[in-house]
Amino acid sequence: MLLRLPDDCWFFCFSLLLWLITGGLAGDPFVFYDWTVSYITASPFGVKQQVIGIEGQFPGPILNVTTNWNVVVNVKNNLDEPFLLTWNGIQQRKNSWQDGVSGTNCPIPAGWNWTYQFQVKDQIGSFFYFPSLGFQRAAGGYGGIIVNNREVIPVPFATPDGDITLFISDWYIKSHKELRNDLESGTGLGAPDGILFNGLGPYQFDKALVRDGIPYLIINVEPGKTYRLRVHNVGISTSLNFRIQNHNLVLVETEGSYTVQQKYSNMDIHVGQSYSFLVTMDQNASSDYYIVASPRFVNSSASIKAPGVAILHYSNSQGPASGPLPDPPNEYDTYYSMNQARSIRWNVSAGAARPNPQGSFRYGDITVTDVYVILNRPAELVDGRWRTTLNGISYIAPSTPLRLAQQFNVPGIFKLDFPNRFMNRPAKMDTSVINGTFKGFIEIIFQNNDTSVQSYHLDGYAFFVVGMDYGVWTENSRSTYNKWDGVARCTTQVFPGAWTAILISVDNAGMWNLHAQNLDSWYLGQEVYLNAVNPENDNTEVQLPENTIYCGVLSFLQKEQAQRVRFSAAPSFDNTIKIVLVAIIVALLGL
Ligand SMILES: *[C@@H]1O[C@H](CO)[C@@H](O)[C@H](O)[C@H]1NC(C)=O
Ligand SMILES: *[C@@H]1O[C@H](CO)[C@@H](O)[C@H](O)[C@H]1NC(C)=O
Ligand SMILES: *[C@@H]1O[C@H](CO)[C@@H](O)[C@H](O)[C@H]1NC(C)=O
Ligand SMILES: *[C@@H]1O[C@H](CO)[C@@H](O)[C@H](O)[C@H]1NC(C)=O
Ligand SMILES: *[C@@H]1O[C@H](CO)[C@@H](O)[C@H](O)[C@H]1NC(C)=O
Ligand SMILES: *[C@@H]1O[C@H](CO)[C@@H](O)[C@H](O)[C@H]1NC(C)=O
Ligand SMILES: *[C@@H]1O[C@H](CO)[C@@H](O)[C@H](O)[C@H]1NC(C)=O
Fold first, then answer.
1. Which of 490, 507, 532 is a domain's end point?
2. Confidence (pLDDT) at 376
3. Which of 141, 184, 186, 531 could form a disulfide linkage to 131, CB 3.0–4.6 angstroms apart?
């Protein structure tokens, strides 16, 4: 070395240099993916069926990135219907253009491609992507998203010896097209045909319940080592209890929040939720062990044939897993699952996307500006169609995405009139949006008037889960809120006949989708948007992307895909004229 630096400067100087190279000077890195989406064949229960693969894989590839990286994904739709991927839990800061839901993006038509570009700004954690349209998630098309800590921010536990992503889901042999027809005709989904682990059927733990020759998932591990398991319920409508025979689950993270590290023998994972557990291989290897995902809160009459079972295989294992599956929790203990959910706490002293502790955002001290009590109801006939509602409104997706309509000032596509309480009036179909107060602090209470567990997901944000209980929420219920270490996440469950309260800091400009994760409830109308407009001109808000697809009343702005590719370097003169024309027409209509 040419310079003689004091020993204790090395770490600092080296870190500074690393920062200059990786972020300070070079900018945040880019990663590029080219993904073809197509039907492939799979037989999870021994019956051939068409599933949606990404790059020929089911589940799709894992998007493994680090805080603030830029992600570019060119998605080619080789299905026979329109397609969009949504990046569940990725906050798309000031950039709802990349959210991939019907209110923000025109669908990618069959045979077309479209390139997403977004930054995973200021967040860490375990999430997943999935197709957001037409019940397609029931056919697969999902995959994991990992957002790692930046090098400079320590993870609040020792580096695990391995990182394993698990997708658990209820599954039907019927296609997503048949299932959505059933829903529209009021038939309902019926009981699923089984539970999958990473797209695979169950291990034959019982010859009477599981047929021969079904491929199953094997997780290979080394004795004594500790693994991080990222478990996602990517299913259709069934809450699942996850557990591993003779092994503890140490909960460390959920949907981007580091949690207080606590041991659980099992965890209820509701549709759309994600958890990270550390699991230590501390058992003798006299045999393999069962990994189980079994349905929760389903009537025994409707209960499905078999739970999902995968195998944990120690490298020195002496033989196959044996004995009965580990016991599920008691179905009749109503509070078991709710108490478990309440026990999940934020580690307020751990850093995450930023070096300062997560708990330095004192959500409990912020004054609430708007309160919404959102009541969901089971499917009912609305104007002769089977529909579900939130506060008596069943969402109708207009053919022009809300965000595009807003951008081009197209009137009459949506109304900013979503009611903050259930209205005692007949249910109706509408495109009604929550008028968010920018920089406000919204309290939402979900009141579940259905007989099944529901989960609700908000795009663009992580919200604080501050309370849940059985019965009807009242103002007094606020006295039970956790105002200190409730976790910030993006999907929360609401038990039947119960409520869940969340708090949202409305600091992300855009049009953000709030929807039921249970696909049946979502498909039939449990969806609403939160519109957050920054009244000040904010030049950091991401502009309309150059490759935007146009549809609905704006479809005349769209060129054929072949032409688009050729002219993609600059917006064409033609478009400029058309945009001016639209502005003139809109101004005239407004008069
Ligand atoms: C993700 O990428 C990092 C490097 O950026 C690597 O260390 C890690 O093993 C990868 N994780 C998975 C699950 O592939
Ligand atoms: C479609 O893919 C091509 C490369 O295969 C790319 O050049 C083009 O920009 C993509 N189109 C869109 C709209 O993203
Ligand atoms: C190994 O562990 C199993 C389960 O805990 C136990 O039943 C068995 O007796 C143990 N065998 C040995 C050799 O320690
Ligand atoms: C089971 O079915 C009965 C009668 O249909 C219903 O009242 C009850 O809520 C159901 N239980 C669950 C857990 O879904
Ligand atoms: C919380 O995070 C800190 C790191 O900041 C870690 O040392 C501690 O063990 C964590 N606490 C719990 C209870 O998980
Ligand atoms: C929406 O809220 C803003 C204030 O945040 C208000 O100025 C505007 O009038 C509201 N719009 C409607 C349609 O209520
Ligand atoms: C649904 O709401 C009605 C009143 O609006 C109430 O009588 C009923 O008990 C509620 N049911 C559930 C399951 O919460």
1. 532
2. 98
3. 141
* Domain boundary pick from 274, 307, 342: 342
| 14/112 same-domain check | yes
- Rounded CA-CA distance 505/277 in Å is 28
Hey, is 477 helix, strand or coil? helix
- d(CA 302, ligand 4 centre) in Å: 10
368 and 516 fall within a common domain = yes
Same domain, 180 and 136: no
Structure tokens at 57: 């894989």
Which ligand sits nearest to residue 73's alpha carbon?
Answer: 2
User: Tokens 């855009």 identify what position?
Assistant: 510
Q: What is the pLDDT of residue 466?
A: 98
- Closest ligand to 417 CA? 6
Name the residue with the closest Cα to ligand 7, atom 1. 449
**Domain match, 221 and 253 both:** yes
> Residues 83-119: pLDDT tens digits?
999 999 999 999 999 999 999 999 999 999 999 999 9
Mean pLDDT along residues 482-498: 98
Report the nearest atom of ligand 5 relative to the CA of 260.
14
Using CA positions, which residue lies closest to atom 6 of ligand 2? 565
CA-closest residue to ligand 5 atom 2: 350
Q: How confident is the model at residue 47 (pLDDT cuts 50, 70, 90)?
A: very high
For the Cβ of 322 lying below 6 angstroms from any atom of ligand 3, the answer is no
Is 322 part of a structural domain of the chain? yes
Res 476 pLDDT > 80: yes
Q: Whose CA is nearest to atom 14 of ligand 3?
A: 284
| Domain count across the chain | 3
Q: Would you tell me how many other CB atoms lie within 10 Å of the CB of residue 325?
A: 17
Same domain (yes/no): 328, 191: yes
Q: Which atom of ligand 7 is nearest the CA belonging to 451?
A: 13
Residue nearest to atom 12 of ligand 7 (CA): 449
Residue 26 confidence class, pLDDT cut points 50, 70, 90: low
- Rounded Cα distance, 108 and 115, in Å: 10
CA distance linking residue 106 with residue 109, whole number of Å: 9
Report, as an integer, the average pLDDT of 407-414: 97
- Both 114 and 44 in one domain: the answer is yes
478 and 369 in a common domain: yes
CATH number reported for the structural domain that contains residue 484 in this entry? 2.60.40.420
Distance CA 225, CA 417 (A): 54
- pLDDT, tens only, 513-557: 999 999 999 999 999 999 999 999 888 889 999 999 999 999 999
pLDDT band at 574; cut points 50, 70, 90: very low
**Domain range holding 294?**
162-342
- Give the span between the Cα atoms of 87 and 63, in whole angstroms: 10
- For the CA of 283, the closest atom of ligand 3 is 2
Report whether 131 contacts 83 (CB < 8 A). Answer: yes
Using CA atoms, how far apart are residues 335 and 134, in angstroms rounded to an integer?
35
Q: Is residue 347 part of a domain?
A: no
Closest listed residue to residue 399, CA positions, set 97, 103, 81, 116 = 103
Nearest atom, ligand 6, residue 438 CA: 5
Say whether both 117 and 167 belong to one domain: no
Beta-strand pair 194-197/393-395: unpaired
Asked if the structure places residue 1 within a domain, the reply is no
What is the position in ligand 3's atom list of the atom closest to the CA of 286? 1
| Residue 509 covered by a domain | yes
